[in-house]
Amino acid sequence: MEQSSIFEKKSVMILAALFCCLLWGSAFPSVKISYALLNLQNTFQTLSFAGIRFTIAGLAVLVFAKAKLKIRIKPTRSEIPFILLVSALQTFGMYMLYYIGISNTTGVKASILVTLSVFVVVIAAHFVFKTDKLSWKKIIGLVLGFTGVVLVNFSLLDSALFSFSLTGEGFIAISSLFSAATAILIRKNAGKVDAVKLNGWQLLLGGLLLMTVGLTGYPHFPAFNLVSGLLLLYLAAISAVAFTIWFVLLKHHNVSYLSQFKFAIPVFGSLLSVIFIPEEYLGLEILAAILLVALGTLIVNRRSKTNVELE
């Protein structure tokens, strides 16, 4: 009989989910600052940087799993296809688009756009899981959230009313689709691979692939100094810790219910971007977008009294 996990407790789930969102929110200014410190000038350099980050994170997770958790980290033949699929969608596919996109937009806008994954998860869950059907409440929440995502691309202060770039905001939005697909996939296959092992391998393999693509296009490693090196280690820690915890939570909880906590990402991300990046600002359209995205996410995932069971 499988032992119960501390992450099954609602109070632990809430704190763990918000902690993950805080870490992910802090990644936006951290990546932007790293780009500036390292003077990354082209796409291949940014992919090399991303690859180094995720390779370090994957190795750290696997070493921890082996040394502390006593997990057999060598994947079985049956686990390999699933690990490869998650790695292709999450670390390689999603983050290739994310790292290119964030270099062409602001940290504030990126932190809001990634919440598209919340709404995609809710729609996809309607078709994948019998207990996660759409309702009028969810539809209203989706409309509010999507309005917020659109509003973040409007500028009320500049002469250009609508600002959108395919390789900036567009790639961030598309990366959120990869994130949503991964969440659905992991929830649907809960228990197929140990969550810690899965995260370690998908980070390592995806990181190596990103680094290979980056170095193929521009065969020079970024020139790290003390500050940029520490930021790299922090970003690696974000991936190692946040994704491991999130994968464990997905194993024990309903995917659309868990996604409600991602409303905190744009709040954390926007505030931290404004604090640490001088050129970032919180205009009226940004504040309105954060409010609409948060409200839409909460409405979408607010469960009725007759449906209070956590899956």
Short description:
The protein is an all-alpha fold and 311 residues long. It is built from 12 helices and no strands. The protein is globular and about 55 Å long.
Describe the model:
This protein is mostly helical and 311 residues long. It has one domain. The protein has twelve helices and no strands. The protein has helices spanning 10-38, 43-67, 80-102, 107-113, 116-128, 136-151, 166-188, 195-217, 226-252, 255-259, 264-276, 284-301. The longest helix is centred in the N-terminal third of the chain and has 29 residues, at 10-38.
List the helices and strands and how they pair.
Elements: H1 10-38, H2 43-67, H3 80-102, H4 107-113, H5 116-128, H6 136-151, H7 166-188, H8 195-217, H9 226-252, H10 255-259, H11 264-276, H12 284-301
Helix pairs in contact: 1-4, 1-9, 1-11, 2-3, 2-8, 2-9, 3-7, 3-8, 4-11, 5-7, 6-12, 8-9
Q: What does the oligomeric state look like here? A: single chain
Would you tell me the structural class of the helices and strands?
mainly alpha
* SSE string, helices as H and strands as E: HHHHHHHHHHHH
Note the beta-strand portion.
under 5%
Distance between the termini: 18 Å
Count, helices: 12
How many individual domains? Answer: 1
| Mean pLDDT rating | 83
**Using DSSP, what is the number of strands?**
0
Regions with little confidence, pLDDT below 50 for 5+ residues: 305-311
Shape: globular
Major sheet characteristics: none
The whole-angstrom Rg is 19 Å
Helix percentage range: over 70%
